[in-house]
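Our working data are protein records whose layout never changes between entries. An example says more than a description, so a record of this kind follows.
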Amino acid sequence: MRIGRHSYDIDYGHLSLVTFIAAVVFWYLLDARSVSLSVNNLLLVQPVAIFALAMYLFILPQCFHRVDAREAAKSPTQKDPLHVTIPSERSDVMRMLALGVSLGLMVFLLDVIGFDIAIFLFSAAAMAICGERRPLRLLLFSLGVTLVTIYGFRALISYPMHTMLL
């Protein structure tokens, strides 16, 4: 695409994905508001939808990249340092699989051992998988995540969570 003296490269895949997500969020917000305008109905939906739509407005300009004559003349062997690559090393793939398995175990164990212990174990396992080795930090951060999550959910949602300790 050319505007004035500048050429722009459009990332159509990224643009279509974020536009689709924004459209679904906007539709969901309108649907929730059409049902009821009470605070209980919109307590979580409206702020999260507005935040998601604001993030869409921040992401949208990143789908358009200005291409100058200098950049077009670059050799294809030069790598763009901001270009995202999918991890292909075995250790990175194993780490992603371990995080996925630990998330699946947490979801399975929520009702078995309680929300509090499952969230604590998941946050500790995720930190350990990502490389944290200091036990005090593992314990303190996992405890903080657990407390904020459990008491935050209890304050916002009247869902009877099965907890073992909290």
Observations:
- The mean pLDDT is 86.
- The first strand starts at residue 2 and ends at 3.
- The two ends are 57 Å apart (CA to CA).
- Residues 151 and 166 are 9 Å apart (CA to CA).
